[in-house]
Design goal:
heterotetramer, A: alpha+beta, globular, B: 162 residues, 5 helices, 9 strands, elongated
């Protein structure tokens, strides 16, 4: 299935793009999308850096299952305010 | 969106007084506000300005979820939750919470809870530009997480230098 | 008076935004404010306006003592403690606290403590004038004391009618 | 000794004046000033109504000793804010 993956802040600097479409196996999770992104952009997997995930504009755990067309976001710990 | 919960992601300067006036009804005896503003230093280094980046669609939805959660837990009237993005100079307001309520304790407790939730959940990131000529740096996590971690943000630095 | 602690008893309208700007320094990341304003009802009766009376010399000294106490207990920057007296219409601000601090939790905690101390210690009294044509009544003690007492202010009523 | 006594809010309505000078015995306390005021203005002693006291612009307990020229204030429980 295809999902749209968006990158923000330092993660967007690492990937060099703000979004891309990834092809994932059926049954993939949000963590699987992250792994697929890290396979394309190696520095996303740097030790000690754990990006956060959102699915369809809600914070999501790694285990959250994905569906065709979902919007997955990968970003650093938030620092607003 | 819940009626009476004003949620905005903005790029223009935040007018705290206008928002406080917007939330207050005649049945409210109390208006509590919190403004976060850009400090001129961070961890001993002089800050020139900040860039705030957001996941804008999610940030607006998250503000609305935070507002709905708070309204369900606190006996308050109207509230405003506003965050600014873009380039902010020292002294400019980055985030504003305004809560009106019949009584003071509810207004104050809801205001304090709102800024905690915003810092914890809102998909916004800030990048610091220093006045000492050093390279700009992303801030990771809320202030107290950085302070608790001892050396500032080592994993992130490794990444940016790697 | 401690430098950085602005204490005022005023009769003119209170400008909350001006006071918030007055307390904030560039080294502060947080400004918390609390505004108390005249409600349009009290214990089920419609309020037309309030009169605030003070022991003015003591009130100003008490504000300064409250400010000094708070500054000694909280890691904050400048603060403003302002109370208005005279006739106030519904919606007008009677009391304003503004506290700036490097970090949000100190600003919020100090702001909440300030309004509690003002309500507990400041020699100010309010008289309610009702929109239902009833005789005006003095309010005794802070709101929660009245609410806790069940029937509103019976001893005082006996006196005023005696 | 002579002390200046000031009345505020409902207390001033009861006494009908905002201040007066009272002659008290040596060693008198703030509570003694209140008792002297209540002797002149009977309704100050209504059951259930306990005015508060200040001496020289500070809250004071009934036992606080007074000195010649002190400013004693008698007022209801405060209700500012």
């Amino acid at each position: 299935m295809k999902v749209k993956v968006r990158y923000f802040a330092l993660v967007a600097e690492i990937t060099g793009c703000s979004q891309e479409t990834l092809e994932l196996p059926a049954g993939a999770t949000a963590g699987g999308a992250l792994a697929a992104a890290a396979a394309r952009h190696g520095r996303l997997a740097a030790p000690g850096f754990t990006p956060l995930l959102a699915v369809n504009r809600r914070h999501a755990p790694q285990e959250q299952p994905l569906s065709e067309g979902d919007e997955v976001a990968i970003f650093p710990p938030v620092s607003g305010g | 969106m819940e009626p009476g919960i004003i949620c905005r992601m903005v790029t223009a300067p935040i007018d705290a007084a206008a928002l406080a006036a917007e939330v207050a009804r005649n049945s409210d005896g109390a208006v509590a506000t919190f403004a976060g503003q850009v400090r001129d230093h961070h961890q001993g280094r002089p800050v020139d300005h900040l860039e705030y980046h957001a996941y804008p669609e999610m940030a607006l939805e998250e503000l609305r979820r935070i507002g709905a959660d708070l309204a369900a837990r606190h006996a308050v009237g109207r509230m405003a939750l506003v965050h600014r993005t873009g380039t902010l100079a020292v002294g400019e307001i980055s985030v504003l919470v305004a809560v009106a309520a019949p009584h003071r304790r509810e207004a104050l407790a809801c205001c304090a809870a709102a800024i905690e939730e915003i810092k914890r959940r809102l998909p916004v990131w800030k990048k610091e530009f220093f006045a000492d000529g050093g390279a700009p740096e992303w801030v990771f996590g809320p202030d107290e997480a950085c302070a608790a971690a001892g050396a500032p943000h080592p994993p992130a630095r490794e990444i940016t230098r790697g």
